[in-house]
Write a structure and sequence with these properties.
It is built from eleven helices and six strands. It is of the alpha+beta class.
């Protein structure tokens, strides 16, 4: 079955958040499955009541009911969702959990770093322009920041990942990974200033601050807020804590999410 783009299937209100996290509705459907499972609703309800549950929720009512239903049906065919009893709410399977975990951005609480910065340079011929674009996209996914068109930097050693990419795309001898050493700098720009500029931390921090302000006004982290956080986190390269500026708010935002999840778990335990 051909996967449909989020842009053609999700209402505009939900799309603005969901498209920043999910690429296809089937993954959004998996997320909704878990979300509904954590709501205070019976685990066995009719389709009509399920529709009412969705319509009553501040977030889900912005999403077309049929879209959710179709996405979950697709996930069920692929073994990511199951229905234990007739007319029961769907449950995500272990395979579905693994699928969703691979799609959702995860906050790294450890960020182990050896104190070194690494440089990736490449010289890919114009005849292989497609491979060059693929490499640039791949470098972003492994948390590299662009210094110049063909020069990228990262605090996380990319040698093994880059070598594997080069082998799979037959780009031997066109990519070089070098080490800036500890406390590296370029010209008169120190390391912290360098990463702030290359990774666009000021704009990203503005997004975190706006999110924090909204959440504090609502005094809770609901589904809409959680997706908003994940959309920002997806664009966050999660640099080592030692490289982040003092004004960085990413950790503050994560603490709000984590505290809210603890409250939800405790509430369910009491219930």
């Amino acid at each position: 079955m051909k996967r449909k783009s989020m842009g053609r299937t999700v209402s505009r209100a939900a799309l603005r958040l969901a498209e920043g996290v999910f690429g296809y509705t089937v993954d959004f459907g998996l997320w909704v499955t878990i979300y509904i499972a954590h709501m205070s609703v019976p685990q066995s309800v009719s389709g009509q009541n399920w529709r009412a549950v969705i319509a009553a929720d501040d977030f889900l009512r912005d999403v077309n009911y049929q879209v959710i239903k179709n996405a979950i049906q697709t996930a069920r065919k692929r073994g990511w969702v199951r229905v234990v009893k007739r007319n029961a709410l769907p449950e995500i399977t272990k395979e579905g959990e693994r699928r969703l975990a691979s799609k959702l951005p995860q906050y790294d609480e450890k960020r182990v770093w050896d104190g070194r910065m690494h440089i990736v340079t490449y010289d890919i011929p114009e005849a292989h322009k497609h491979d060059r674009e693929l490499l640039r996209g791949y470098l972003r996914t492994i948390r590299c920041g662009r210094l110049q068109d063909s020069v990228w930097v990262t605090p996380y050693n990319p040698i093994d990942l880059v070598r594997s990419f080069a082998q799979s795309h037959d780009l031997h001898g066109t990519i070089i990974v070098s080490d800036m050493g500890k406390d590296g700098s370029i010209g008169e720009e120190n390391l912290k200033g360098l990463v702030v500029r290359i990774y666009g931390l000021e704009k990203l921090n503005d997004r975190y601050e706006e999110w924090i302000t909204r959440v504090k006004k609502m005094e809770s982290v609901g589904a809409t807020s959680l997706l908003g956080f994940l959309a920002i986190l997806k664009d966050d390269s999660q640099l080592p804590f030692a490289l982040l500026p003092e004004w960085w708010k990413g950790d503050t935002a994560y603490k709000l999410v984590k505290e809210n999840l603890v409250k939800v778990v405790n509430k369910k335990a009491i219930a």
